[in-house]
Amino acid sequence: MTSSGPKRRQGKPDRLPEFPPDNELPASLDVGPFIWCSADVGITATGFVVYSTGVAFTLVALSKGVSLRYEDPIAESPLGGISSDRVAGSLRFGAHGVPVTVHSGGGGENRLTIDAWTPFPADGDLVFYLEWPAQGIEYSEFRVPRSAAATAVVLWPQELLADRHRSHVELTPSFLVRVEPWAEGTDLMRMRVVQQGPPSIDHLDSLALSICNDDSCWPDERNVAANGHNYDEVRNQVWAPYRFTPGTGPNGINLR
Fold first, then answer.
1. pLDDT by residue (tens digit) across 20-74?
2. What is the pLDDT of residues 73-129, one digit of tens each?
3. What separation in angstroms does the CA of 182 have from each of 34, 170, 192, 196, 254?
4. Which one is predicted more confidently, 33 or 176?
5. Closest CA to 14 of 120, 117, 109
6. Which of 33, 58, 149, 153 is buried deepest, with most CB atoms within 10 A?
7. Architecture of domain 24-154
8. Structural domain boundaries of the chain?
9. pLDDT tens figures, 115-147
10. What separation in angstroms does the CA of 235 have from each of 218, 226, 240, 246?
């Protein structure tokens, strides 16, 4: 078998955005209401706002008897949708060909609220689907037209933010902090702080160091008192293997 022409190189597809763009004001989108009801539950997809790259919305489910409380964390199904297994059965919500990213969610026994984001597919409209067979809600679809993306207001080029972030990273000083013996045969230690970059910053006029306690588990007040200590004094102490020697200068801080 011979090839009829040169092989086309398969390019890596562009990654779909997981968040709305930071340079756009969204436009409200009137694509509803989308409401599904049965004897015991009701579901709506509402609050649609559209960006040039996708749609943000809220999914709300109510129940008069069926538990909507999480039994397992919401996970993405293989089709890129939201799947939540409960005693009542499986509630499936998603979009064809693109993932639905859950940005926040909560609720209780009789209420479930999910804030989500879905990017537009590479071409064509955005088509959502929903079903909850165990509650009598059959499979259905609804569509968000791709043309709605044109209603978003672009404030400035996306590259502007990327360039500013890149400049910030390039101009952010980096340091090497090292604790080493002060001299052979002594238990004194010396801390060295060395500027490693970036090359565009040749020197710094000053450097301020802040030392704090990274242990969030404070000592128990009753145990401290039982050992004859003042709880407030213990709590205000930064606990570490070494302490700074009082009176040392900035060019050679000793630790012991």
1. 988 899 998 887 778 898 888 999 998 899 999 999 999 898 988 877 765 443 4
2. 344 443 345 554 443 456 888 999 999 988 888 878 888 888 999 999 988 899 999
3. 71, 34, 11, 22, 8
4. 176
5. 120
6. 149
7. Sandwich (2.60)
8. 24-154, 174-255
9. 999 999 988 899 999 988 888 899 999 999 999
10. 7, 15, 13, 21
103 alpha-carbon distance from chain centroid: 8
Q: Which residue has the tokens 């649609």?
A: 48
Q: What share of the chain is helix, strand, coil (3-state, %, to 5)?
A: 15, 40, 50
Q: Which structure tokens are listed for 210?
A: 């802040």
**Length reported for the chain:** 256
Residues 113 and 149: their CA atoms lie apart, in Å, by 25
d(CA 25, CA 155): 7
Contact (Cβ atoms closer than 8 angstroms) between residue 160 and residue 222: no
